[in-house]
Write a structure and sequence with these properties.
Blueprint lengths: L1 E3 L7 E3 L21 H10 L3 E2 L5 E2 L12 H9 L6
Antiparallel strand pairs: 1-2, 3-4
Length: 84
């Protein structure tokens, strides 16, 4: 915990938290491709998922409301047929 002392006699304590961001935020605007067999586990147990593009998160929004991640799409389309 960091102590911040402003001008005057009042002390204010500030709780410093690490930045857990893993990128520029663009990942939050897209629906991502993941392994199909991991979807149910994530939905039931809250297990984090790893997208083809590398994003790790616990899904909580309807992916149909977002455009597909261009990086995931590019990777998916480069896979041999039947690999997805």
């Amino acid at each position: 915990m960091t102590e911040v002392v402003p001008a005057g006699d009042t002390k204010v304590e500030s709780d410093t938290r690490p930045d857990l961001s893993t990128g520029d935020g663009d990942h939050e605007r897209f629906a991502h491709y993941v392994l199909k067999d991991k979807i149910m586990d994530s939905a039931v147990n809250g297990t984090p998922m790893v997208a083809l593009c590398g994003k790790v998160w616990v899904p909580s929004r309807d992916p149909k409301r977002f455009p597909v991640c261009p990086e995931c799409k590019e990777i998916f389309e480069s896979l041999p047929d039947g690999a997805g």
